[in-house]
Amino acid sequence: MSNEILNLNLIEIAHLISTGEITSLQATQITLDAIEKHNPNINAYLSVFNEQAIEQAKKVDAKIASKQTIGPLAGVPIAVKDNMCTAFGTTTCASKILENFHSPYNATVIEKLLAADAVIVGKTNLDEFAMGSSTENSGFAQTKNPWDTQRVPGGSSGGSAAAVAARMCYAALGSDTGGSIRQPASFCGIVGLKPTYGRVSRYGLVAYGSSLDQIGPMTRTVGDAALMMNVIAGHDERDSTSVNADLAPVADYKADLCGQIKNLKIGIVTKFNEGATPDVCGAIKDAIAVYKSMGAEIIEIDMPHFDYSIATYYIVATAEASSNLARYDGVHYGYRNKDADELVAMYSKSRAEGFGQEVKRRIMLGTYVLSSGYYDAYYLKALKVRNLIRSDYTNAFEKCDCIMMPVAPSTAFKFGEKTADPLQMYLSDIYTIAANLAGVPGISIPCGYDSQNLPIGLQIFTPAFTEHKMLKIAAMYEKNTNFPKLPEMK
Amino acid sequence: MTKEFVVKKLVFNKLAKIMSDIKYKVIVGLEIHVQLCTKTKMFCGCALSFAQQPNSRVCPVCLGMPGSLPVMNKQAVEFSILAAMALNLEIARFTKWDRKNYYYPDLPKNYQISQYDLPISNKGYIEIPLESGQTKKIRITRAHLEEDAGKNTHTSGDYSQVDLNRAGTPLLEIVTEPDMNSAEEVRALAIELQRIVRYLGVSEADMQKGHMRFEPNINLAITKDGIEYRTPIVEVKNLNSFRTIERSIIYETQRQLDEFIETGKTLKMGNKSTRGWDDDKQMTVLQREKEEAHDYRYFPDPDLVPVVWTDEDLERIRKNLVELPIEKRKRFIDNFGLSSYDAGVLTDEKSLSDFFDEAVSAGGDPKRVCNLITQTGLKIANEKGCKVNELGFDAKALAQLAKMVEEGTIGASSANIVLAEMAATGQTPDAIAQAKNLIQKNDTAEIEAAVEAVFAENEQAVDDAKNNPKKAQKALGFLMGQAMRKTKGQGNPKLISQILNQKLGI
Questions:
Q1: How confident is the model at residue A5 (pLDDT cuts 50, 70, 90)?
Q2: Domain count, chain B
Q3: What confidence category does residue B293 fall into, taking pLDDT thresholds of 50, 70 and 90?
Q4: Do B228 and B334 have their domain in common?
Q5: Is A207 at the interface with chain B, CB within 8 A?
Q6: Does residue B148 come out as left (phi exceeding 0), alpha (psi in the -120 to 50 range) or beta?
Q7: Contacts of A101 in chain B (CB under 8 A)
Q8: Is residue B193 part of a domain?
Q9: Residue B311 counted as domain residue
Q10: Considering only alpha carbons, which residue of chain B is nearest residue A237?
């Protein structure tokens, strides 16, 4: 019985709770039991809010019993990545420097989840400050891929991806700066959506690369992602970079899923789709064939600046990060070295001890590219290339409705496989990073399994602020295939 | 201390020979921070504060908490643009925000949101009044908007305390060209700028509350044996009174002259130093020997969107531009014939200058209105701790009083008594003059009779007035006084004088 409930998707469980067939308390208790059972092995969560979740579940059940109006996520256990501020529990960013940090406020997305009557069950693991592609850079725990615990769940939203795949929640929020939602979604065989930059408020998302960061849903189905988008999308006056409703109105993403897009034009770059491992290439080819069978037209497009996206990203993102992370200095909050006898020593010791290797590497890189004498050659140049990458998308979308390519060059890799060589790790984001630089939305949906039964993801891009279209295209595939499958949990 | 005095002291003290052919000029440019009087901080909803409980006016944004984001205060930008317009600056149509990165405990994000290469305004000037009655134009390089930092308090013990109430307060930074050549000019600029921002209502400009902070860059151009030398530039940090600005410049002038004569050190790349003003010792003290090669790693703040201004926006803001103090001062001198000094007093505060203008418009003679304000009005206002326009009578009543003086209904000295009573009771000048028996007698026959009586009682004086040139003036004054007394002080002095002269035949 409890497994059946756990295997329900978000829309199903939300429906059953809202109609009173299952209580939120039941669903929440079952989820908390699953966390208790699996999390010691998977390490998806950094913190779990047992009592608070139960309390919230009872509150929602009371609301339903008394026939009050309820939100679209009423009573459903949801997880959030631990780089989103919550006024309850800790917000650590998986960093020792924020190990015991209690945020005084809720992020906008947290407020929205609560307003939708969701039950937030816990906060999930990530690469420290969302810097990484495997969650191995977490300062606290190694999250394992539920499909194969010898392997990474992807990153940086590896905890959220693993929690959704392992049925330790019905949906989760992740954040995506260079692929951090889509790549772990792909590695864990779930749906991950990175909205257009400005679609979801960043207020309360601990900044990594401010001009690239976006919060998005990680779910088991496309419909679930649409439902989550209904809850979190929209302008926020506390985030100046969130777009005004009159410029880009928020759609009813879930309602828009019905029907098909006729004469769909899919843009592909053959060289990209042939650049991954044979299993991934085969799965992408098969997925595109499914669309063809639904009448889609395949158009070869050119994205000449795509190859520069990793170099560009590691200048822009690290430059912003070097400034964003300057505040963690031991003065006002967070880890402070107790032995330092003067200010500068306190700064440097606190930061040297509080930050992990990868974070320090990126802070140094970012500091360097912004330094006097190097700014023009690196940062300014990167901004120019960023514009060219943006125009690659704009030009492509003149010829096609969407672009399809793999999410990652390979399926989930083994622990330690890429940690020795940061560049190898960076290259695993080759297909996802450009969308962040261009600001366009992207979605990862399961489209097959490799020879070792590891999930493969198909990535779909559509123009800025057309998430409704992107979701619809993704749903067309989902309806015509038998994905997603979920890993067996023992 | 004047320039001449500085030179003299040096000449006589030690260096007579060397000094004999030295000429020098002080060169000063200013960096000024003006705190804007917006309701809330630059990037969050916290109220501005002064002397509140430490860390009581803060929120996640101005505390720089993880995940918080700044939202631009539009009022602050519009105030800045208005000030920039008054300073004749070109307003940028496109402006953006940059992060200035440096570590300090009073800067919670360890970067300051400021403006680097695209400030809100460039290239302007301020016209300042000088004691000579002349004015001088000082060029302004740029003005930009930024957020203030908090405050570190270094108490005893091995720690410092940080108060972030001030963090995020909007500051307008104004940078001038090095166009000032004396302490007087710098002081005049500081005061004029204070007047301007107060006239515009964009800053309270209260020096004691640190609303205006000045950082002069000072050096000397010294001509010796026909060759010009420049001394190394000294930046004096954080001056917040007109007196210390003036004194620090006078002090630096002498110190740099001394140093040049002793060491011959001249301006080179990188030998700019920073000094602070020690008010107890009345001298500047060295803070940083060399200009540290600060690399602030400025870059555009990705959390804020650039600001674009249309013609309509700027026109709307320009409507709030008022007549500036220096324009007003000129008008008062040119149109009303006021002295430069009086015009300066009346235009020091906008409310007073408006009150004066209103009284003149209501028919008051400008000079009489001016005298009533400067001789009595300001004194009473000062005693009451309010402004002249808050004394309890309106500008029309003041004009009425001036008219009564003009028409001889009351005497000039009585007018001051009436004014004091107007402030006390709010009654009309006419009613007060009646009640206090201050209405002048203009009845010729009555005055003639009084003069006759005085003559009869004081023959010697009459004789002196008529025939003794040595004593005539004194005697006339005496007779005048006696006649005034005979009319119980109510006789129109003009009329008495006229009749006196007539009867004495002089």
A1: very high
A2: 3
A3: low
A4: no
A5: yes
A6: beta
A7: 66
A8: yes
A9: no
A10: B71
Checking if the pLDDT of B11 tops 60, the result is no
| Same domain assignment for residues B237 and B283 | yes
Residue A148 to chain B, least CA–CA distance (Å): 34
Which residues is A45 bridged to in the sheet?
Answer: A124
Q: Which chain B residues have a beta carbon less than 8 Å from that of A371?
A: 295, 297
Any idea which residues of A carry the catalytic annotation? 81, 156, 180
Q: Tokens for B297?
A: 């790693």
**Do B14 and B114 fall within a single domain?**
yes
Do B89 and B181 fall within a single domain? Answer: yes
At A459-470, the pLDDT tens digits run: 999 999 999 999
- d(Cα A99, Cα B424) in Å, to the nearest integer? 67
Contact status, residue B129 vs residue B138, Cβ threshold 8 Å: no
Which 3 state secondary structure label does DSSP give A226?
helix
Q: Check whether residue B396 and residue B454 sit in a common domain.
A: no
Class of domain A2-264+401-479 as given by CATH? alpha beta
Q: What is the pLDDT of residue B17?
A: 53
The whole-number average pLDDT for the span B250-269 is: 92
* DSSP strand pairing (A297-300 vs B135-147): unpaired
| Domain termination residue (choose one: B277, B292, B307) | B292
Report the residue of chain A nearest B105, measured CA to CA: A331
Q: Per-domain residue ranges for chain A?
A: 2-264+401-479, 306-382
Q: Is residue B222 part of a domain?
A: yes
Contact A319 B299 (CB under 8 A): yes
B335 lies in which domain range?
A: 325-435
3-state secondary structure of A296: coil
Same structural domain for residues B27 and B106?
yes
Overall residue count recorded for chain B in this entry: 506
- DSSP readout, B246-296? HHHHHHHHHHHHHHHHHH-----TT--EEEEEETTTTEEEEEESS------
Say yes or no: B179 and B50 in one domain.
yes
Q: Name the least confident of A80-84, A210-214, A372-376, B135-139.
A: A372-376
| Domain-ending residue, one of B435, B465, B480 | B435
Contact B297 A107 (CB under 8 A): no
- Please indicate if any CB of chain B lies within 8 Å of the CB of A90: no
Indicate the pTM of the whole model: 0.91
Which residues of B lie closer than 8 Å to A, measured between beta carbons?
60, 63-72, 99, 101, 103, 105, 108-111, 162, 295, 297-299, 302-305
Chain A residue numbers with beta carbons less than 8 Å from the beta carbon of B63 are: 332
Residue B90 covered by a domain: yes
- For residue A378, the 8-state DSSP code is I
Q: Hey, are the CB atoms on B108 and A327 less than 8 Å from each other?
A: yes
User: How far is A458 from chain B, CA to nearest CA, in Å?
Assistant: 30
Q: What is the pLDDT of residues A272-307, one digit of tens each?
A: 888 899 999 999 999 999 999 999 999 999 999 999
Q: Which residue of B has its CA nearest to A330?
A: B105
> What is the pLDDT at residue A160?
98
For residues B176 and B227, membership in a common domain is answered with: yes
- Which positions in chain B touch A323 (Cβ < 8 Å)? 99, 101, 111, 297, 299
Residue A242: the pLDDT is 97
Hunting for tokens 């050119």 — which residue is that? A302
Are B299 and A370 inside 8 Å of each other by CB?
Answer: yes
E strand segments, A64-166: 77-81, 119-124
